[in-house]
Design a protein that fits this description.
With 183 residues, this protein is α/β, with parallel strands linked by helices. The chain has seven helices and seven strands, in the order E-H-E-H-E-H-H-E-H-H-E-E-E-H. Strands 1-2-3-4-5-6-7 form a seven-stranded mixed β-sheet. The radius of gyration is 15 Å and the shape is globular. The two termini are 21 Å apart.
């Protein structure tokens, strides 16, 4: 599977310039895909705008994996309370849920452990990043995907790629619920 960045910020002009090509090439190869939107939102209002921008960018594609909200900047860590971070996540994710998408949260283990309310983590699927030699991340809540390294190699991709384990059958879940563009 591949989780491809669709964009960042709160404008459709912040679409990742390689998003469409990456999606088309992955789908041509039969690789099931999800996407993520990198957040700079520091308010709930910004998160709603980011969700709308993300929707405009992704609406013409089908995704077998979730649409992930990537929240991990220093501004989130240093300047936002857990209440604000959780509100930002819920604003973005609930907006895309209402549009028929299976959504989730992406961040690093320590951030998820310290900056996100448990009821928010329980509501959405989690993709946790933690690079370790251990057999699991330092994150003790449920998660569907674990990003375990960032220096992987994949044929046809120039440079390093993030490597992940998926523990849920997202394509089955998403298709059975007719989400992410599946009817």
């Amino acid at each position: 599977f591949a989780i491809i960045r669709s964009g960042y910020g709160n404008l459709t002009s912040q679409e990742d310039p390689k998003f469409r090509t990456n999606m088309e090439q992955a789908q041509k190869q039969g690789i099931p895909c999800g996407t993520y939107w990198f957040s700079y939102a520091t308010t709930v209002e910004d998160a709603y705008r980011e969700a709308e921008a993300c929707y405009q960018v992704i609406k013409d594609f089908k995704f077998e994996y979730p649409i992930f909200f990537d929240i991990e900047t220093n501004a989130h860590r240093d300047n936002c309370s857990a209440a604000t971070v959780s509100g930002i996540i819920e604003a973005f994710c609930s907006t895309l849920e209402a549009k028929g998408y299976y959504v989730g949260i992406y961040s690093y283990a320590n951030f998820l452990n310290t900056k996100v309310y448990s009821h928010t983590l329980d509501r959405y699927t989690v993709w946790v990043a933690h690079y370790t030699d251990k057999s699991k991340p330092d994150y003790n809540r449920p998660y569907g995907i674990w990003q375990y390294r960032s220096d992987g190699k994949v044929n046809g991709v120039n440079g390093d790629v993030d490597m992940n384990y998926s523990y849920k059958d997202y394509p089955k879940i998403i298709k059975s619920k007719k989400l992410n563009g599946f009817k």
